[in-house]
Specification:
Chain B: It holds the Pfam family Proteasome. The structure holds 2 protein chains of 2 kinds. Chain A is of the alpha+beta class. Chain A contains 4 helices and 13 strands. By secondary structure, chain B is an alpha+beta fold. The termini of chain B are far apart. The chains are: A alpha+beta, B alpha+beta. Chains A and B meet through helix 1 of A and helix 6 of B.
Chain lengths: ~250, ~400
């Protein structure tokens, strides 16, 4: 310092993590699950890319959304897919959803002392045909829920979901009660509105939206008939079915 | 007796070894001749390949001592200065033959192949590695497997063996990746280990290079792995052979892998018990395979597999499995568009078994056909019941 005083000692260290922004969301219905994520990847005030998927298909009935540090997220998904492949070799069938959830916990905790900086949300159809959402913290703590939002706009979206899905702070009309499960089209509307609203108020959310819809075996697909730009990912008509819906979000 | 001190030390080691391994060697006649040895040479001669640790191992140590004790009358044998013919002694121990030694170079006749076949790392005078050849024999013990390919598909057909009427049939096919599958003949445990390795290689290729592993590269990787076991002392060759089918950018492929570490690509091939009969059928028809439909290809494969059956046996939905790589066939549903490897078993193969032409009408070949039935009729029928049935065995296949 020019005045003769001295600076505090400084230390520089490589930071292995960075935040890549974005938001993910999953909602479970009675016989379907919806898992969505925006496609913007950013670092600080810069956009790295307008299209970097954060939601991935694991099996015919399981979808994993990863958010936080993109490099860890992408690698983690690859490793999970490899473990599922070993399971298929060993057992000649696909891993059930709650087993995948437990597997994810053990994989995350195995890195307890150099964690994957990822907030995972696993969604899909359980063995009993019900819609399920499992949410994880970076070291593997997990819980099955009806809905969960994670990522940059979590604080904007989760309260909205608490009100609209769990009907928190709402009194039902006299003589009726809140439905335990919402119909598919209502859920899709809530998802799209969550993201458009988050895009308005959070700089790290925007550009595009990908929504995965997983339907239990036997559930009719007529609810989806009117959806524009629907694409089927499942190969067979019998069994659980999976669709993807893409929408644009504001790019500013 | 200047050598006595060294001998005593080695004897001490021997005792420790024996005690620590809890063995009793009283039957092997120790010590009578020991204390009276006047030879000043060290106890053990380094006359055969192996490390010092090996030489001090129990059996070789004790054998040497007992050999010495029981062969004291060989003192006069000038070829063996310390008067012990270890190799001849070893020859009496078990039926694997004598212990190979450089000093046996004198024997060149085939009768003495026993002396060159205990160790992997010893060539015979004819330039053969007998252990590796014996490993191929293990492959020939397994039940037959047939592979063939066309322009669009590669298929495998396997004859499954069961331990008895109450048991299930042994699995013969493994999926390695979406685009690769194998059928095995030989030691099932070795097959599991190698197929696991292949799966690791396939997955690693997808992870590291973001593309499925080319089939020839995969087969080379197990061939190289198997070769190590033919050149390292103390390791035995893998006792299993594979037929590998796969598809990649260059189309469908069929490879054979053998315990020697050799691998070749084929248009059609068969391995396992009585596979020569299948190969004869394939040789006669392989030129038509290129343009065959999947159903015709399977029919040819089933005919070839049928040739390996013993009398009175037939292909059933329980003992046959079919592996296919390539686009979906007329009788298949729900095959992914990439034509991933799938295994057909049980009811789904009924339609293919029914498409087979009855035996005897397939190949009207004048000379062999007239000779074969005559021999078949005169040969004594196999012993009644399941006891003489080669396909029903306790041995690992």
């Amino acid at each position: 310092m020019p005045d003769g005083s001295h600076e505090q000692p400084q230390q520089r260290q490589f930071n292995p993590y960075t935040e890549n922004g974005g938001t993910i969301l999953a909602i479970a219905g009675a016989d379907f699950t919806v898992i969505a994520g925006d496609t913007r990847q950013s670092e600080g005030y810069s956009i790295q890319t307008r299209y970097a998927p954060k939601v991935f298909r694991l099996t015919e009935r399981a979808v994993l959304a990863v958010n936080g540090f993109a490099a860890d997220g992408n690698m983690f998904v690859k490793k999970v897919k490899q473990r599922l492949e070993w399971y298929r070799h060993a057992h000649a069938k696909e891993m059930p959803l709650r087993a995948i959830a437990r597997l994810i916990q053990t994989m995350l905790y195995a890195q307890r002392f150099f964690p994957y900086y990822v907030y995972n949300i696993l969604g899909g159809i359980e063995e009993d045909g019900s819609g399920a959402v499992y949410s994880f913290d970076p070291v593997g703590s997990y819980e099955r829920e009806a809905c969960r939002a994670a990522g940059a706009a979590q604080s904007l979206v989760q309260p909205f979901l608490d009100n609209q899905i769990y009907f928190k702070n709402q009194t039902p009309a006299a003589g009726s009660s809140h439905p335990t499960h919402l119909p598919l089209n209502d859920v899709l509307s809530i998802v799209i509105d969550s993201f458009t609203s988050a895009t308005e108020r959070h700089i790290e959310v925007g550009d595009g939206l990908e929504i995965y819809v997983v339907l239990a075996k036997g559930r009719s697909t007529e609810d989806l008939a009117s959806i524009r730009g629907l694409q089927e990912l499942s190969a067979k008509d019998e069994g659980d079915r999976m669709f993807i819906i893409r929408r644009d979000l504001k790019k500013d | 007796m200047s050598g006595a001190g060294a001998r005593d030390q080695l004897w001490g080691l021997c005792v420790r070894n024996i005690i620590s391994q809890g063995l009793l060697w009283g039957s092997v006649g120790l010590s009578p001749g020991f204390g009276t040895r006047s030879c000043s040479q060290p106890v053990i001669r380094y006359r055969y390949p192996g490390s010092i640790a090996e030489l001090l191992g129990v059996s070789s140590m004790v054998n040497a001592y007992s050999g010495r004790a029981s062969s004291s009358n060989r003192l006069e044998n000038s070829e063996h200065p310390d008067g012990v013919d270890l190799d001849a002694y070893y020859a009496t121990l078990d039926d694997s033959g004598g212990h190979p030694a450089a000093s046996f170079a004198l024997e060149t006749a085939e009768d003495f192949r026993n002396t060159y076949d205990s160790d992997n790392v010893v060539f015979s005078p004819q330039g053969r590695l007998h252990q590796v050849e014996y490993a191929s024999e293990a492959v020939k013990q397994g039940s037959a497997v047939v592979g063939l390919r066309s322009k669009t598909h590669s298929i495998l057909l396997a004859l499954k063996r069961s331990l008895g009427e109450l048991a299930s049939y042994q699995q013969k096919m493994y999926r390695i990746d979406d685009h690769v599958g194998i059928a095995i003949a030989g030691l099932t445990s070795d097959a599991r280990v190698l197929s696991n390795f292949m799966r690791q290689q396939a997955m690693s290729s997808r992870m590291v290079f973001n593309r499925p592993i080319p089939v020839n590269r995969l087969v080379s990787s197990i061939a190289d792995k198997a070769q190590v076991n033919t050149q390292e002392y103390g390791r035995r060759p893998y006792g299993v052979g594979f037929l590998v089918i796969g598809q990649d950018k260059t189309g469908p492929h069929l490879y054979e892998f053998s315990p020697s570490g050799n691998s070749y690509e084929y248009y059609a091939m068969s391995i396992g018990a009585r596979s020569q009969s299948a190969k004869t059928y394939l040789e006669r028809h392989f030129e038509t395979f290129v343009d065959c439909s999947l159903e015709d290809l399977i029919r040819h494969g089933l005919h070839a597999l049928r040739e390996t059956l013993q009398q009175d046996k037939e292909l059933t939905i329980q003992n046959t499995s079919i592996g296919i790589v390539g686009p979906a066939g007329a009788h298949e549903k729900e095959v992914p568009s990439e034509g991933s490897f799938r295994i057909l078993e049980g009811d789904s193969i009924t339609v293919y078994l029914q498409s087979m032409v009855p035996k005897g009408t397939v190949d009207p070949d004048p000379e062999p056909a007239s000779a074969a039935p005559a021999e078949g009729g005169e040969a004594p029928p196999p012993a009644a019941g399941t006891t003489a049935d080669e396909d029903v065995q306790m041995a690992d296949q």
